[in-house]
Amino acid sequence: MISMTISGNGINQTVKTGADGSMEVKGLVPGTYTVTEQVADYYEPQKEQSITVVAGETAKVSFNNKLKKRNLTVVKNAEDGLNAGITFRLHGKSASGQNVDLFATSDGTGVASFPDRVITGGQKNGADFDFHHTGRWLLGYWFYSGCCV
Fold it and tell me: Which of 3, 65, 101, 120 could potentially form a cystine with 42 if both were Cys, beta carbons 3.0 to 4.6 Å apart?
């Protein structure tokens, strides 16, 4: 369920959509209204839309939600310089509830990339990721630093 705000003609009301995405707002008089969708953090922001209500007719407005996608870059930084060929695994659930299970291997400079991924969020808003790497175990240590959106 998503919150929508309808404003105009003396009305400023927030309603939630049903499971099917529809909503019913009673008491609107004919006229033009602005509808604003209150999207979750893991969606790209939506522009408000104008809608005209006509007596005896159903007014429709559509919003198309796109999940935010970002690039994640991990940098392997080993004291002995063995930074290439390390496989990193990112797995868990994104804030939007999508399962994530991805692998990336570091290049000659130690950089591994997970491009254009739905990984928006963090512990504060529900994303839950484990981040692991495999590769060379040297001198009893893994040396790496990672950055996660």
Answer: 120
Average pLDDT, the chain: 78
Nearest to 88 by CA among 141, 137, 130: 130
Residue burial 84-120, b: 16+ Cβ < 10 Å; e: rest:
bebebebeeebbbeeebeeebebeeebebebeebbbb
pTM attached to this predicted model: 0.58
Q: Is the dihedral of CA 35, 66, 119, 99 positive or negative?
A: positive
What is residue 132's predicted lDDT score, i.e. its pLDDT? 53
Share of the chain above pLDDT 70, in %: 77
